[in-house]
Design goal:
The structure holds 2 protein chains of 2 kinds. By secondary structure, chain A is of the alpha+beta class. In chain A, about 50% of the residues lie in helices and about 20% in strands. In chain A, a hairpin with a 2-residue loop joins strand 4 and strand 5. By secondary structure, chain B is α/β, with parallel strands linked by helices. In chain B, strand 2 and strand 3 form a beta hairpin. Chain B starts with 11 loop residues before the first strand and ends with a helix. The chains are: A alpha+beta, B alpha/beta. Chains A and B meet through strand 3 and helix 3 of A and strand 1 and strand 2 of B. Strand 3 of chain A pairs parallel with strand 2 of chain B, so a sheet runs across the interface.
Chain lengths: ~375, ~180
Amino acid sequence: MAIPLSITKYIRSMWMAETVITYLQVDKQGNLKSWGGHPRHYGLSNLIADRPATEQLYFLEGLLTAPHSQKLEFVGLATDRYAHVSIIPTTEGTWVLLFDATAAHDQKQKMQQQVNELSLLTYRQSQLLQGLEATRKSLEEEKQKLEEVIESKTNYISTLIKTMQMPMECVDGYHQLLNKVELIEARTTDYLNVVKNNTNQLLSDINHVLDETKSEAGQVALYISHCEIKVLLENLVSIFQSVAQAKGLLFSLEIKENVPPRVMLDELRFQQILINLITNGLKFTPKGFVTVTMSWEREQLHFVVADSGSGISSEAQQKIFMPSPPNTTDKSMGLAISQHFVKLMGGQLTVESSPKMGSMFKGFVVAPLPLGP
Amino acid sequence: MNSLPQLITKMTIIQKKICMIGDFSVGKTSLVARFVRQSFSDKYLTTVGVKIDTKLINITDDTQVKLILWDIAGSDALNTTTASYLRGAAGYLLVADGTRRPTWDSALNLQQAVSSQIGNKPFVLLLNKADLQEQWEIKPSLVEPQTQQGWKLLPTSAKTGMGVEEAFSLLAKQILEIAT
């Protein structure tokens, strides 16, 4: 059987392109008639003429019945060789041409490998991000629930404290009335002072609990108003003088000349800061002094509370402004809340101390002059 | 002579072309490697074009099927090149990667495209990478509509060999039932 001219031309053009060519000829009955080129190149060995082609060339299964030409790109046969396969039906049977495409295949494979690996990586990353987003949402929901619990706890404690404050204020009121009673015995006065001090302490503790609870829930708000600073400080002296005297301590207050008579600040919170610092000073000073110094500069009210007490180790200083965990004996009552208030009021609070050398709490709050007269 | 036992049974060998269809990196080549050579490699190697293998399996005592396996390059859709490989296929294995949800959508799209290309041929849908079950994104609820339509679905693992022989055997039997 002669090779048709069209097939010859096609083969020649591919030959010119230096492509390794193999050809196989199959008759109308599907038997292999002849072959040429390099069938072994594709692992096609032991070919037998006049035997069914599909039994020897498995890749032709189902392909010999097509009425028109077929071209299959990058067909990998039994070896690692790849070929472009052309299946061309003629009047006498079918021609199968194999053009070696191994080099082109390997090149394309490398490129496709990179594309696919990148695509897989992108997919995995997007899945990871989705996972992270789901975790974030879940945490957000947990946070929301926790905030609701804290708010509920704050409301409960606030209600509880208000119910405690009322009887305490009642006790305080009766104490004042008793003080006005004439001809009261000296011993009774002493007892009343003890009642007074303990009532003050209890009220102060109740306020701490309330403030710390509100602080946890982020509910502390400032109420800025005109504050007569000297009156505020004199009140403090009257509260603490008797305690200091009872302990044999010297309690003094120095107000620098530059302190204006009136400034704008949250009077109640500022008073609470000083009460906390002075209470601690008196509590941890067995002998010596506790002094309060007040000055004003560039719209800032500066204060120093110094004592000659037992002092604070540098390790303890690291933790002194941290909120104390529940159910612990708090030796520095209210320092965390004082720090919180000072920051709320635009200032800062620091401590300088060493064991047995006393302590010095220094701080300031923003306290501008009132506008107008 | 009639009383003598029949010692030699004539074995019928039927040759069938089947195609591996599915998105890239779902494990088509690994399934073929497991089925033909009982081997597995974790290294991903992209298939370009098509790789042809054969495997002879016993279907009944007197019937063997020589499967001509066309492992076609993975893609989420059928293009002209991949469509040309389908001619003459008696059936196909549709493969999805259980750990990648989009490969399920690709499998559904490809099934429609293959059907329109070569007609209603038998196929089995394989959910591969069953060894990574904890990472699966293809949930039972997702595949339910297809199982209700009567699609044959099999979880497989080219890594452990789970379901691989069954998958090829099931497809071969389906093809023969249609052929006979």
